[in-house]
Amino acid sequence: MHARRFSLRRLRAGLKGWGGVGAMAVVCALALAFALLLPKTQSTGEGTDGQEVAHGSQARAEECTAPEKQTLSPSGADGSTIDAIKAREGEKRKLIVGVDQNSYRWGYRNPNSAGTAELEGFDIDLVHRIAQDILGDPDAVQFKAIPTNQRIPAIQDGRVDMIVRTMTINCSRLEDVAFSAPYFKTGQQLLAPKSSTITGYDDSLADKKICTAEGSTAYTKLDEDKKANELVSSADISTTVPNQLDCLVRLQLGEADAVVTDGALAASQAAQDPTVELKGAPFTTEYYGVAMKQDADDLVRRVNQILVDYREDTANGWQASYDKWLSATLGEDSAESEPPAPQYLRKS
């Protein structure tokens, strides 16, 4: 307890001059240690039974070469999964979605929002669009804050209908969940203090402590590169945390020298803390997708149809959300400023 109080005092001292958004990020990260589910009511697990089994609809990892293409063609039809969601009664008639609540401009509680501190961001806009299409009400959503390392278990256990939380589509995850077509393109990148000698994903990481989130593609990449001798051998990748934003806190406390995460998230964190910056270019190419249960074919197809419509809606769709939340940090003409073109595994 004494050590914790000492760390908090150091943290408060380091926050001077930050401003409201930076402080919000740190407070949210620490708060996750105590409460993760939104709201406090527990999921009933409804909507997880009686679904059609679609063995082989997602490619197995050993056969997978382009994970962002391993999804089903769009359809606006209902099915057993969607029927079960619609059959929920009263206040429970909501889409249950796992999200982040402290990723600035993606899914976060804005402390400056007229006392409501509602969830806002690019991912949250997409959730409201999905709820509008399936249930006819953009606010018919029960949000649940899910840490990075609990995204897949939350889907498999039926705690959520889907995860919309900057979740990268990759071959390994296709073993456990189904994904929509990609809705965002990014890549792994380094975040470090501006004063750091780190220049990018190179030999400047020698003897440096790198922080990643448990269960993240960032850690997988570092671990694989370390084993393949493609990452400088003296780099320390042992620092992992449940939530990615916790790495920024470690960086601010001097407990890590660098953070590896998606460039899109890193850019938002650099906007929160003016003492850090992106170092070097992205060194992977990755795509975010909406994650669902493997046998929820009708829901996967429906979300893919929603994404088609969302991309084409120039007034209130993907581009409008990007311009509102992300253009300030990623730019209006960056590679991320347009939605990725979808490709599908099969048409029927």
Structure description:
The protein has 348 residues and is of the alpha/beta class. The protein contains 11 helices and 15 strands. A 5-stranded mixed β-sheet has the order 11-10-12-9-13, sandwiched between helices. It has a 3-stranded parallel β-sheet with strand order 5-1-6. It has a 3-stranded antiparallel β-sheet with strand order 2-3-4. β10, α6 and β11 form a beta-alpha-beta unit. The longest helix has 16 residues. The N terminus is likely disordered.
Task: Quickly describe the structure.
This protein has about 350 residues and is α/β, with parallel strands linked by helices.
Number of strand elements: 15
Poorly predicted runs are 1-62
State the order of secondary-structure elements, H for helix, E for strand. HHHEEEEHEHEEEEEHEHEHEEEHHH
Radius of gyration: 20 Å
Count of DSSP H/I helices = 11
- The proportion of residues in beta strands is 15-25%
Q: Distance N terminus to C terminus?
A: 58 Å
How is the biggest beta sheet arranged?
5 strands, mixed
Average pLDDT for all residues = 84
Placed side by side, the strands forming the largest sheet appear as 11-10-12-9-13
Helix content: 25-40%
Shape: globular
Helix/strand structural class: alpha/beta
